[in-house]
Amino acid sequence: MSAAMSADKQLVGYLPVGFPDLPASIDSALALLDNGVTAIEFGIPYSDPVMDGPVIQEAANEALEAGFRLPQVFEAIAAVRARSDAPLYVMTYWNPILQYGVDRFADDFAAAGGTGLITPDITPDAAADWIAASERTGLERVFLAAPTSTDERLRMIAEATRGWVYAVSTMGVTGAREDLDSKARALVPRIRAAGAERVHVGIGISTAAQVAEVWEYADGAIVGSAIVRAIQREGVAGAARIAAELSPR
């Protein structure tokens, strides 16, 4: 892939806030951004993660056992924002937002310097409160689209999204895979045809070759489990190493 072609492509790195502890998660995010990752997706650790694979579940449990509390998300965002202009997203199941308060979360997240929220378990037709809060605060809202989504559902997702649509590359939970599901390559043009301006692909991406493959037909690639595993094994140094390895630039 040429430099011109890759210049506007995003490499989004996922890690749970508070893993293995709050300072380390902040340092890991900064290490990712310093070594080729262009945007951060902070995950909120959750006790019942229906979409997360074993690597991310283990990391989230470690963060919870270390005493993670939701306000630490805003601490992490503010700390990274103080040193970087990169897009900073939070991915979370909806229940923690409800418990915290939708408007309160939107206000605190925006004040910390957050870019937008990725919500895997809430659909646009059930997200009126969040849509209103994000309109008010200017936060991006990222909804997920799956290979099984109907064209009607994709149009609803594209219309409600502010920022980019998260295309789930394959059915199932997160985790590195040897081969990206070909369904992702078919799904992205369907999402564009439904009206989405930008589409990122996630789930199963773990190598620079896979990132480059996704960049051929989508606007961004999201890597989670491979990054989390590197941090589990090597700490902040692992974050720096995997970021450099993942970037095809």
Descriptive report:
There is one protein chain. This protein has a nine-stranded parallel sheet with strand order 5-4-3-2-1-9-8-7-6. It has a single domain (10-246), classed as Aldolase class I (TIM Barrel). Helix content is 47%, strand content 14%. Helix 2 (22-34) runs parallel beside helix 12 (236-246), helix 6 packs parallel to helix 7 (128-137) and helix 8 crosses helix 9. It is of the alpha/beta class and 249 residues long. The chain starts with a helix and ends with a helix. It contains twelve helices and nine strands.
Distance between the termini: 8 Å
Poorly predicted regions: 1-5, 171-179
Name of the CATH architecture? Alpha-Beta Barrel
Number of strands: 9
Summarize the structure.
The chain has 249 residues and is an alpha/beta fold.
Question: How are the elements arranged and paired?
Answer:
Blueprint: H1 3-6, E1 10-16, H2 22-34, E2 39-43, H3 54-65, H4 71-81, E3 88-91, H5 94-100, H6 102-112, E4 116-118, H7 128-137, E5 140-142, E6 144-145, H8 151-160, E7 165-168, H9 183-193, E8 199-202, H10 208-215, E9 220-223, H11 225-234, H12 236-246
Parallel strand pairs: 1-2, 1-9, 2-3, 3-4, 4-5, 6-7, 7-8, 8-9
Helix pairs in contact: 2-4, 2-12, 4-6, 6-7, 8-9, 11-12
